Amino acid sequence: MASNSFRQLTGNAKGCLIYEPLFLIPYSMFVTYSSIFMYELGVTETGIGWITTIGLLVQVLSSFLSGYLTDRMGRKRALLYFDVLSWSVATLLWAVSQNFWFFVIAAIVNGFQKVPHTAFYCLLVEDTAPKERTYVFTLLQLISVVGGLFAPIGGLLVYHFSLVPGVRIMFVLACIMMTIQFIGRHYATRETDIGYRKMKEAKSMSIKEGMSDYLSVLKVMLRSPLLLIIFAVYILFNFQTTVKTTYVSIFMVEYLQLGSGLISVFPAFSSIIMLMFMRWIMPRIAESQVNSIMVWGFIISVLSNVILVVAPKGDLILLSVSTIVAAIGTMMTYPYLETAVANAIDDENRAKIFALLQVLILIVISPSGVIGGWAYGIDPRIPFLLVAGAFAISIPLMMVYTKKQHQLDSSAMKNIHF
Predict the structure, then answer these.
(1) How many CA atoms lie within 13 A of 88 on its CB side?
(2) Which residue has the higher pLDDT, 405 or 414?
């Protein structure tokens, strides 16, 4: 399935995705252990929350600059330079970290990831037809899912070397593999036509003019209720991802009392469920059903977090059920939500609108680290109730979005008929 999918890809989408496993495989290995790694080195739950928040605040700044830098430097150069800074350098810093302050510095460096995030997004979709974007984002999710299958290798490293040395090895491997990816992708892609035009425009524009251009873009965003609704859903999705990623591993080890080597099995288990869903269910989903599927995906995601909260300590059965339900919920939402956002943004202002979207996301989720740490200190289950709440709010928002989209489509059809 994957080999056929890659053969169908062309242009920058192929150049971007063919190297993506070199990022996602090491990332899936260390992300499971990052919070526990900090905890083992003496950082408290509240300290972990502060580190997360500091990193997110830097991401606010880099998000705001990302549209301007992506237009001025070009998609390819912005992607290469800032990926090396925010990931190659950051993973090396994590590999040698000793205490809270090492992690703060690494979080600041890693916070510049939003520049390559915007550049990658533009490079991936600008030369891809809108009708092909669901396919591209589904394939991106597939690569992410396959990357999750390698998470148990991290568990083996932890089992063999113990937690801290094992995680340090993961970070060194990540630095090497990610750097190879960044260089390989750079030579496998070409600057987009819009990218060339934006570079020429940006050269004759001062930084002040470039920044003021955001105001006109913001006005365009505010005039589109449909855009604002889908952005709100996207922001809530990112909020829950941040909270859950930060605390789920600690929750499993400390509250549910699972072994640190065992927890890496769950991302792999989740990946297998996602692969099955992609193989047998997604091809049967019609374009007209996508919004309804997302609503049901949010409902299922609420259920998965409720199951996680009520699971007794050491209960692998309920934890496995929660993992299965969460994996299905993710596949019913993520690829379609990414596509909806991509298609809602016009190519002309893509870099700046996407940059502003990232700023809005980060303004909302920046306090999530501190709030999550504070909530975890009161009761380790509260952060996952917040995650369930984010999904619950998304349900009516998605229903309103669907209704407004139908109204706009009906109006457009009437005008064409007329």
Answers:
(1) 17
(2) 405
Residue 276 has phi, psi (to 5 degrees) of -65, -40
Residue 81 has pLDDT above 80, yes or no: yes
Say which residues have a Cβ less than 8 Å from residue 354's Cβ, sequence separation at least 6. Answer: 66, 67, 118, 121, 122, 345
- Taking residue 100's Cβ as centre, other Cβ atoms within 10 Å add up to 16
Maximal C-alpha separation, the chain: 72
The mean pLDDT of 337-341, rounded to a whole number, is 91
pTM, rounded to two decimals:
0.82
Q: How far is CA 209 from the centre of its chain?
A: 30
Buried b (16+ CB within 10 A) or exposed e, 352-385: bbbbbbbbbbbebbbbbbbbbbebbeeebbbbbe
* Per-residue pLDDT, 1: 47
d(C-alpha 224, C-alpha 75), whole Å: 26
pLDDT recorded at residue 191: 96
Calpha distance 247→252 (Å, rounded):
9
Sign of CA dihedral 17, 23, 25, 31: negative
> By the 8 A CB rule, do 163 and 37 touch?
yes
Residues contacting residue 289 through CB under 8 Å, at least 6 positions apart: none
Report d(CA 399, CA 418) in Å as an integer: 29
* 3-state secondary structure at position 3: helix
Would you tell me how many other CB atoms lie within 10 Å of the CB of residue 1?
11
Distance (Å, whole) CA 307 – CA 322: 6
- Give the pLDDT mean for 7-16: 83
Q: Are 211 and 218 in contact (CB under 8 A)?
A: no
Q: List phi, psi (to 5°) of 49.
A: -60, -40
Report the percent of the chain where pLDDT is more than 90.
Answer: 58
Tokens found for residue 106? 């690494």
Residues found in the chain: 418
In percent, the amount of the chain with pLDDT more than 70 equals 96
pLDDT at residue 414, rounded to an integer = 64
